From TrEMBL, chain A:
Keywords: 4Fe-4S, Coiled coil, Electron transport, Iron, Iron-sulfur, Metal-binding, Repeat, Transport. PANTHER family: NITRATE REDUCTASE BETA SUBUNIT (PTHR43518), RESPIRATORY NITRATE REDUCTASE 1 BETA CHAIN (PTHR43518:SF1). Its main location: other. It holds the Pfam family Nitr_red_bet_C. It is found in: Cell envelope. Transmembrane segments: none annotated. Residues 7-35, 173-204, 206-235 form the 4Fe-4S ferredoxin-type domain. Residues 425-452 form a coiled coil. This is Nitrate reductase subunit beta. Its cofactor is [4Fe-4S] cluster; [3Fe-4S] cluster.
UniProtKB/TrEMBL annotation, chain B:
Its main location: membrane. Keywords: Cell membrane, Electron transport, Heme, Iron, Membrane, Metal-binding, Nitrate assimilation, Oxidoreductase, Transmembrane, Transmembrane helix, Transport. Gene3D superfamilies: Transmembrane di-heme cytochromes, Chain C (1.20.950.20). The chain crosses the membrane at residues 6-27, 48-72, 84-109, 130-155, 175-197. PANTHER family: NITRATE REDUCTASE PRIVATE CHAPERONE, REDOX ENZYME MATURATION PROTEIN REMP FAMILY, RESPIRATORY NITRATE REDUCTASE 1 GAMMA CHAIN. This is Nitrate reductase subunit gamma. The lineage of its organism: Bacteria, Bacillati, Bacillota, Bacilli, Bacillales. The keyword Iron applies.
Length: 500, 231
């Protein structure tokens, strides 16, 4: 048993209002620099839709993640030898047309232009070439809130998979928001794709980072990551990615996207897992079993044997305590209401999603009078097709989605029964039985999902810097100051500091 | 005196710049050390240009090892006569040279014609491509045309031994006296190119990830001293 700690995130999609505050604060903190204008470490997509970059889930095109061949895990885009042979040109990588060409506006024109017959216009200007763009044709969240519906929705690879035709009439459409950051996977394919060995998983908290000194810009990580969450900075010619705001988490603070989340949909905590089980869990034959296999790598932080072994292996006790209080452990492992994004990529992603409930389709009348057990059939007829959610969160296994949605519906019914009353208890019990849950669990869930305060949502142990032996030497140094040139200024070559 | 400069002093200056500056950049300027790809700006023409150029230059490199670094005596001892050698050199070297020149021309056209790429092409990039184009063009011309129409020049008894003598610090500059002027220009410009390597995008040639196939797919790194027990 090789115990490792991993910081992880749960996003409760029911509460996401699609305001993009997470994206904007992340951008202002991390990618507000020349070379990364097109980069969003955090983005919020409206689904169904093509996503960012366009159709990132199309593994036939970008060849991200792992595939199982003869019981062995292989990178879909090809192993090391194939990569070395293809190193001069990456046929599967997305380019700026798949992301978008970033632009600004010629704002100066608005106050510089003299008197005239027409209103002054600030024309769009490319941030790549500096030239005016006559007509931007794609941009960040171009398809926000289903804009461009009948044109953009069919670009969603999950929609193409669905058996039934998705109706695009106004009354029948559905949508949901999907905020995405780097998954900080347990079996990251970007790390395995890097010819230079520049990408690595931090031993102490599992955050996946790019060593900016070692990266040589070979770009295989870009499409090696099936979530397309590693980006190429065209200014430094190196890869960059979400770093889980490690300077913040090391100080016990949540990532900036979580801190600023208006809907408070994000939860951060530590989980303990057995690194020796990861490979086997990623290699199970049936993609539908990957979710259960992934759950099997995590360790019970209350198990005395696990606690003892973890300490033996150098995990600080404050981290074990945090793992015991971890909201992630509760939602993803204990209650099993949070699901991994696209488990079929076999990367064992560590950002989990609670699937959204949606209005029940209109052929169920008198919704107010719907008895508790009425949810049992109704959960199959929600506005967001279960197949669609299953395609995103459960490797097409609708049973998993059904179980979670039932549990969420049971939680609502139970809390309504408790606070408002007027419900038939036997029918409620039937619903709870079908959802395989108890009143106690539902109350805990309701507490964490609805009213949990900052310290319950974010249980983040601080980085144990006191164990570092050169602390005195590092006094006053900032670990990120050589990551980027000063804002708005491109310098080359970049100054190197003594920071590691 | 001129011979001493061009065939002794100049090569050592270029070689020293190559070694010292490359070392300096690797150690103190690691954040700028990369293969500065422009694929993100657009894939147009890149597949054909980059792949053909790079494979061509690898073949050309192997060809130069065979022609310049391996002494003529080795070929004689294994029974490859001059005629056979030159036929192979003309065909193999010519093909490699044409690949390099073709790739470079398409890359140059790509840099000039795609606005996103052109905006971010620096003086160093044009300098590298043009210098490579001249050196490779001269080499291809000598291999394919000069060798077949003027004289099949036996560089293995002049340029080869002179080049090897640089490494033993006993440079035999007199060997270069009778070398045709085209060959001399090719050699001198090649040394300019060597000196330019550490200052341009060419450094990425030293980063070819040979260790990749043998390393573990997953990489873990701990902060120094974070966990004394972890590997």
């Amino acid at each position: 048993m090789r115990i490792k700690a991993q910081v992880a995130m749960v996003m409760h999609l029911d509460k996401c209002i699609g305001c993009h505050t997470c994206s904007v604060t992340c951008k202002n903190v991390w990618t507000n620099r020349p070379g990364t204008e097109y980069v969003w470490f955090n983005n919020v997509e409206t689904r169904p839709g093509p996503g960012y970059p366009k159709e990132w889930e199309n593994t036939d095109r970008y060849k991200g993640g792992w595939v199982l061949r003869n019981g062995q895990l292989h990178l879909r885009a090809g192993g090391p030898m194939a990569k070395l042979a293809n190193i001069f040109y990456n046929p599967n990588m997305a380019d700026l047309d798949d992301f978008y060409e970033p632009w600004t506006y010629d704002f100066e024109q608005l106050h510089k232009r003299g008197k005239g017959d027409s209103l002054p216009v600030a024309r769009p200007k490319s941030m790549i070439t500096g030239q005016f763009m006559d007509k931007p044709e794609w941009g960040p969240n171009w398809d926000d809130d289903l804009a461009g519906g009948s044109e953009t929705v069919p670009m969603d690879p999950n929609v193409r998979k669905l058996q039934e035709h998705i109706a695009m009439e106004y009354e029948k459409t559905f949508m949901m928001y999907l905020p995405r950051i780097c998954e900080h996977c347990l079996n990251p394919s970007c790390v395995a794709s890097c010819p230079s060995g520049a990408l690595y998983k931090r031993d102490e908290d599992g955050i996946v980072l790019v060593d900016q000194d070692a990266c040589r810009g070979w770009r295989f990580c870009m499409n090696g990551c099936p979530y397309h969450k590693v980006y190429y900075n065209w200014n430094t010619h190196k890869a960059e990615k979400c770093n889980f705001c490690y300077p913040r988490t090391e100080a016990g603070l949540p990532t900036i996207c979580s801190e600023t989340c208006v809907g408070r949909i994000r939860y951060i905590g530590v989980v303990l897992y057995d690194a020796d089980r990861v490979k086997a869990a990623a290699s199970v034959e049936d993609p539908k079993e990957l979710y259960e296999a992934q759950l099997s790598v995590f360790l019970d932080p209350f198990d005395p044997e696990v606690v003892e072994k973890a300490q033996e292996q150098g995990i600080n006790y404050s981290w074990i305590q945090s793992a015991q209080e971890s909201p992630i452990y509760k939602m993803a492992m204990k209650w099993k209401i949070a699901l991994p994004l696209h488990p079929e990529y076999r990367t064992l992603p560590m950002v989990w999603y609670v699937p959204p409930l949606s209005p029940i389709m209109n052929h169920i009348t008198n919704e107010q009078e719907l008895s508790a057990d009425g949810y049992i059939p109704a959960v199959d007829q929600m506005r967001i097709p279960m197949e669609y959610l299953a395609s995103i969160l459960a490797a097409d296994d609708t049973k998993v989605i059904r179980r979670v949605l039932l549990k969420m519906a049971a939680m609502r019914s139970y809390m309504r029964f408790k606070t408002v009353g007027g419900m038939d208890q036997t029918k409620l019990n039937k619903l709870m039985q079908e959802a395989e849950t108890t009143a106690e669990e539902l109350e805990d869930m309701a507490r964490l999902l609805a009213v949990a305060k900052y310290n319950e949502r974010f249980v983040i142990p601080t980085g144990r810097r006191e164990m570092k032996d050169d602390l005195h030497y590092k006094q006053g140094a900032c670990s990120i100051e050589d990551l980027a040139p000063p804002e708005g200024m491109a310098t080359y070559p970049f100054e190197r500091s003594d920071a590691q | 005196m001129e011979e001493v400069f061009w065939w002794i002093i100049f090569p050592y200056i270029c070689g020293s710049i190559l070694i010292v500056a490359t070392f300096y950049r690797f150690v103190f300027r690691a954040k700028g050390w990369t293969a500065p790809s422009t694929e993100i700006f657009g894939k147009k023409w890149l597949r054909i240009a980059s792949v053909i150029f790079h494979y061509g230059i690898i073949f050309a490199f192997i060809g130069h090892i065979m022609g310049v670094l391996i002494p003529i005596e080795v070929y004689e001892s294994i029974g490859i006569d001059e005629h056979t050698y030159h036929i192979f050199a003309i065909i193999g070297g010519g093909a490699a040279g044409l690949m390099v020149v073709f790739g470079l021309i398409v890359m140059l056209l790509r840099k000039l014609s795609l606005p996103r790429v052109r905006t971010h092409t620096t003086f160093g990039d044009y300098f590298t491509i043009l210098l490579l184009l001249i050196v490779a063009g001269l080499g291809t011309y000598m291999t394919l045309i000069y060798n077949t129409t003027v004289v099949a020049y036996e560089y293995r008894t002049s340029i080869g031994p002179w080049f090897r003598s640089l490494f033993t610090f006993n440079p035999l500059s007199e060997l270069m006296l009778g070398v045709p002027v085209l060959f001399k220009i090719h050699v001198i410009l090649a040394f300019v190119l060597f000196a330019a390597i550490p200052f341009t995008r060419l450094v990425h040639m030293f980063s070819f990830p040979l260790r990749y196939p043998t390393r573990a797919p997953q990489q873990y790194r701990a902060r120094n001293g974070y966990n004394k027990n972890s590997r």
